[in-house]
Amino acid sequence: MRPVAAAAIVLSVIAVSLLGSFILPSYHPYSYDISGTRAINSTGVSSISIGDTAGTVTVNSWNGSQILVSYVSTSYITSPQAPSISANDGALSINVPSPSLGFFSFGNPTVNINVAIPSSMADQIDVRLVAGDILVHLNSAASVYLTTTTGNINVNVSYLPQATFDVTTGNIQFWSRATKDVYASVVTGDISANLDGPLLGNYVFKATTGNINVLIPADSSVSFSISSSAGGIGVTGIPYNTITNNNQQINGVAGSGMASLSESTTTGNAFLKTNS
Predict the structure, then answer these.
(1) If I label 150, which of 52, 82, 136, 189 is the partner at 20 to 30 A Cα–Cα?
(2) What is the helix, strand, coil percentage profile of the chain, to 5?
(3) Element (H, E) at 22
(4) What ranges do the domains of the chain cover?
(5) Which region holds residue 53: left if phi is over 0, alpha if psi is between -120 and 50, else beta?
(6) Is the pLDDT of residue 53 over 90?
């Protein structure tokens, strides 16, 4: 290597090092976790809202009398952040702030949050994620509103009058023994729902690119519509009174048709089957 070229390389390395030391003096790489647990008095709490940028959120039942909020925060760019936790006027709020690195805006920590609520409680649950999975396993809940941009939703709640699930990229899995109104939407992903109890309200399942499989009791009284623009459709095991099958859409009535159920996907299969 010529002396001039070698000198130029050395000067470039020194310049980059000096630039980094002046422009980013306080930004050092981290690779560690912080964690914590907080007990909340459950008396009077009727709603729980959780906002997270990246991570897994789990809400489950336990036999204690308090609400336990635990978290593990991991970051590889900025210092890990603990979620803010507040309980006021019957509302428990858990939020992860988005970090900002001066003129940069990246480096969000991964914050996994677990909320354990007394098994006797039936709260409103609201979880909003940017990237991550949502798992809700409870004995009962007044309602759930769950949304994630990139991730899966898994819900197992015995008694759940109202449920809304919204996913951009990911899958939705849902089971309930008693539910009234359900709305589930996914852009890219599959929906699997097992409605293991009487159908009493409106049930809507939508996908743009993905499959939809819904199980209901054989003795359901429901009006149903199953459609797919480019995929298979079918109704199996449901003793319907009337049914029509035209242009990739099946419409029918079982029993008195008291409840309403629709499945629609653009690219994928849509099936309605019995779970009994």
Answers:
(1) 82
(2) 10, 60, 30
(3) helix 3-23
(4) 27-127, 152-276
(5) alpha
(6) no
Amino acid at 30: Y
Q: Which amino acid is at 190?
A: D
How far is 46 from 57, CA to CA, in rounded Å? 19
Residues in the chain: 276
**How far is residue 112's CA from residue 106's CA, in Å, rounded to a whole number?**
18
Give pLDDT tens digits for 154-208. 999 999 999 999 999 999 999 999 999 999 999 999 999 999 989 999 999 999 9
37: left (phi over 0), alpha (psi -120 to 50) or beta: beta
Give first-to-last CA distance, the chain, whole Å: 79
Q: 129: how many CB neighbours lie within 10 A of its CB? A: 26
179 and 198 in contact (C-beta within 8 Å)?
no
247-255, Cβ contacts within 8 angstroms, sequence gap of 24 or more: 249/225, 250/224, 250/225, 250/226, 251/223, 251/224, 251/225, 252/223, 252/224, 253/222, 253/223, 253/224, 254/220, 254/221, 254/222, 254/223, 254/224, 255/219, 255/220, 255/221, 255/222
CA distance 133 to 111: 11
Question: Residue 2's pLDDT is what?
Answer: 53
Q: Where is pLDDT greater, at 183 or 9? A: 183
How far is it, in rounded angstroms, from Cα 230 to Cα 224? Answer: 19
Compute how many other C-beta atoms are within 10 angstroms of the C-beta atom of residue 247. Answer: 6
Cβ atoms of 73 and 109 closer than 8 Å: yes
Confidence (pLDDT) at 276? 75
Nearest to 184 by CA among 206, 168, 200: 206
